[in-house]
Design brief:
Distance between the termini: 36 Å
Oligomer: single chain
Radius of gyration: 20 Å
Number of strands: 0
Number of helices: 6
Shape: flat
Largest sheet: none
């Protein structure tokens, strides 16, 4: 099995997870659409917020090998299947780990965008975020950065690990 096929399978699994997770978050926002003003959120806002991750899931489902080719550098589509070397397995593992981190970071980002939108629309003067909310927003941003770094920077991560492993030699 080619390494891009392994990543392609992981991309499809991520697409399924992203689709289900987005539906779960969007359905959690639906009661806010039925709430009386000023606490309501429009159906259009919920639809637009859910539309982008669902479109991403559909694209990931239909084009997993194209995504895998972008994630794993220097892959030629016509390479013969060969046993994967340890560095190849590490690159695939870090790419899949990046996808996994993004599965929670992307829906959390949707949550915080909705939260900020609702805060903006409430006419209560100035509202301050609690320390827990600020910490959660910061952790979501960190998760996004780490997820994208793991996904697209797997060779750089391998270099750091190898340098740390052989630093004293």
């Amino acid at each position: 099995m080619h390494k891009e096929q392994i990543v392609g399978i992981a991309v499809r699994l991520f697409a399924i997870f992203l689709f289900i997770y987005t539906l779960r978050y969007a359905s959690g926002l639906l009661p806010l659409a039925a709430a009386p003003p000023p606490n309501n959120v429009s159906f259009l806002f919920i639809f637009v917020l859910a539309l982008f991750p669902i479109l991403a899931a559909v694209l990931l489902w239909f084009f997993p090998l194209s995504v895998a080719a972008k994630i794993i550098p220097n892959i030629k589509a016509k390479d013969k299947a060969a046993p994967l070397s340890a560095p190849d397995i590490e690159i695939v593992a870090f790419s899949v780990m990046g996808l996994w981190v993004l599965t929670t970071a992307i829906p959390d980002t949707i949550y915080w965008v909705t939260f900020a939108f609702r805060l903006k629309n409430i006419d209560v003067g100035t509202l301050q975020l609690s320390p827990e909310n600020i910490g959660s927003m910061a952790s979501t941003v960190v998760e996004l950065v780490i997820g994208f770094w793991l996904l697209f920077g797997s060779r750089g991560i391998l270099g750091l690990i190898r340098r740390a492993r052989y630093a004293g030699k």
